[in-house]
Automatic annotation (TrEMBL):
Presence of the UniProt keyword S-adenosyl-L-methionine in the record: no
A Pfam family reported for this protein in Swiss-Prot or TrEMBL: Sulfatase
Taxonomic source organism: Spodoptera exigua
Residue stretches making up the Sulfatase N-terminal domain: 19-340
Listed InterPro entries: Alkaline_phosphatase_core_sf (IPR017850), ARSB (IPR047115), Sulfatase_CS (IPR024607), Sulfatase_N (IPR000917)
Name of protein: Sulfatase N-terminal domain-containing protein
Amino acid sequence: MLLLTLWSVLCVASVQARPNIVIFLADDLGWNDVGFHGSNQIPTPNIDALAYSGLVLQNYYVTPICTPSRAALMTGKYPIHTGMQHTVIRGEEPRGLPLSEKILPQYLKDLGYKTHLVGKWHLGHYKREYLPMSRGFDTHLGFWTGKIDLYDHTNMETGTWGFDFRRGYEVAYDLFGKYATDIYTNEAVKLVEAHNKSEPLFLMVAHSAMHSGNPSEFLRAPDEVIDKFSHIKDTQRRKYAGMLTKLDESVGKVVMSLRKEGLLENTIILFSTDNGGPAAGFNNNAASNYPLKGVKNTLWEGGVRGAALLWSPLIKQPSRVANQTLHIADWLPTLYSAAGGETSVFKNLDGFDLWEALSNDLPSHRTKIVHNIDDIFASASITVDNWKLHKGTNYNGTKDYWYGPAGRDGEYSFDLLYKSDAAVAINNITALPNKERITSIRDASTIKCNNGKPINECKPLKAPCLFDIDEDPCELKNLADEKPDILQALLSELERVNATAVPPNNQDLNLRGDPKYWGRVFTNFGDYIHLETPV
Ligand SMILES: *[C@@H]1O[C@H](CO)[C@@H](O)[C@H](O)[C@H]1NC(C)=O
Ligand SMILES: *[C@@H]1O[C@H](CO)[C@@H](O)[C@H](O)[C@H]1NC(C)=O
Ligand SMILES: *[C@@H]1O[C@H](CO)[C@@H](O)[C@H](O)[C@H]1NC(C)=O
Ligand SMILES: *[C@@H]1O[C@H](CO)[C@@H](O)[C@H](O)[C@H]1NC(C)=O
Ligand SMILES: *[C@@H]1O[C@H](CO)[C@@H](O)[C@H](O)[C@H]1NC(C)=O
């Protein structure tokens, strides 16, 4: 009896000790849109404060577009292994992340976590069983499709238009007109405040920002915030600055609430973009991946190298630029392991448990990355050690360039940084590094390329290209001719992984899913109709 009591006390104790896990997932945020990568144009003091006192994830890769990236985050698998490798799920598409996949919040529930999703889902909604609360999240406030107008919460896509905002399974009409980022901030803070501290918390805040909304006004933020950036001449970029400021402020407020509730000491925070930035008008947006090549939905570094940081008092070697190679599929085993879970529960993952490597600054087990294989676009890219292969490209090569802005003019504001909510909250637990240290971290995480003309120009529609990413992160010097053996080795590796791919599970749109049949709301239409019913 005594033993049994002792045992249950120990169990409870170990459950209590599990760290809280908070993921801030930005949408379409570019490499050069966070202050810690060297741009002075749009201050992100809260995000930066976490980066400098945590880990700047310098060699971190995501997939080039939203649905595949979120699928990898949730499953720990490459999109080629879940059928999610080609573009995104559309509002009228009867498709979702396969139900055969057990996902991150489900695994964390097994460890006793309370699990909450705030914001975007985009992994399938045509049937209730694909929705977040059917797949491991205790609560969800947010939206189901790929993007919304940040104020009216409607999504215009594929020739139709509908409202898309939910509290759980219910349509949240009452939130119409409220700025989405503020809704997420308030909801996240409320969840933190209401959280039962004897249980571990998993909170994922999947922002609408920085994705563009609808044609009436693609990028939206409160006027008074946009007006602070009157010195930015490009109107779209100025609005982008307003959106990003709100996103950064949101991160700060949530971190502060974790501090106030006494949760921050035992919390792991991941801040990550879902894919590279849509720059120079791509997707009607104004992100920057400078000096990297390409944009969102391309396989160049600008499309797949993700702006991200990891923060936690549990990291044993913090305040550094972490050069461990990492892929978004690694978070499932990495966070599960950090939570004290036994990673032998995972079968057939592409992700690695890199918690020890990140925490103790040890070599990463990851030496290869499959950026994607998309046979519909006829494009593929992989990295092996420092070598990156490109075969084919998207958009017929029209996005295979380098875009700004660099944002290197002006000065970095340490004042904003140290006064930010996140900095104040962090300083309550562990000191933020001094200016000198921050300057050196920032310098090391600022990629510098002699952006001259490309050498042996890569024409991926004609022949595969090869780059040494360590030496040439900007993909300027095509080494395919110079290093035929390495090129051949990577082509063989591509062939090997390609043989493991499953076919993409994209479906034709089902016009019965058009919001016009459902009171102008995007719905789980597949629960109400036979999909083959004619319109
Ligand atoms: C908080 O969680 C603990 C452990 O699960 C539970 O025993 C307790 O009843 C919970 N408290 C409240 C107020 O729900
Ligand atoms: C990471 O940095 C260490 C030294 O700090 C170096 O030895 C190692 O080669 C680097 N690894 C990569 C992948 O760049
Ligand atoms: C692709 O680009 C080439 C020139 O770069 C052009 O000749 C060709 O028409 C384009 N193809 C399509 C389908 O746009
Ligand atoms: C942290 O905050 C608490 C509560 O606001 C305060 O009592 C304490 O002095 C602070 N500690 C530090 C190191 O700032
Ligand atoms: C992958 O394999 C399929 C056939 O199974 C083939 O059609 C496709 O071209 C291959 N893709 C690459 C990038 O090798």
